[in-house]
Each structure stands twice: as structure tokens, then as C-alpha cells.
Amino acid sequence: MDKDINRIKVVLADKKRTNKWLAEQLGKDPATVSKWCTNSCQPTLETLMKISKLLDVDLKELVRFEELDN
């Protein structure tokens, strides 16, 4: 999949948080979070919901819905 579906990297930067911090909060391997941030793989919906709570953002801010239109 070549499309950037999630915006995790952007939201982390906006919140001044790191991939490592997110990995620690979720109990995930930092390499997994890195893959999410580069959109080489995607987290589950449940994980996206946890991320939105941790970063105090709406779930919609973590996903690029406009990519689905194409």
C-alpha cells in the first residue's frame, strides 16, 4: 500500500512526543511504532483508539480519510 493512511507521525510531532514514548505507553516494540509512522503497516482500530486517547486527539485526526476517495 503506497498511501499514507495514518497521521500518527504528524500528530506525535504536534504533541512533542516520540515514537519511543508511544511504544512505551502501548507496550509495543519501537520498531512496530516506527512502521506505523512510516505507513509501512497500520495499527488495529483498537490501537488507533488507544493512541487517540494517549495523545488527547479525536480519532479522525489520526486517519487520512481523503486517501480512501481514490
Explained architecture:
The two termini are 13 Å apart. The longest helix is centred in the last third of the chain and has 11 residues, at 45-55. The chain has 70 residues and is an all-alpha fold. The protein is globular. It has 4 helices and no strands. The model has no long low-confidence stretch (mean pLDDT 92). 49% of the residues lie in helices and 0% in strands. Helix 2 packs across helix 3 (30-37).
Strand content: under 5%
**Termini, distance in Å?**
13 Å
Sheet bearing the most strands, described? none
Order of helices and strands: HHHH
Q: Helicity, in percent?
A: 40-55%
Q: Return Rg in Å.
A: 11 Å
Calculate the mean pLDDT score and round it: 92
* Helix count from the secondary structure assignment: 4
> Would you identify the regions where 5 or more consecutive residues have pLDDT less than 50?
none
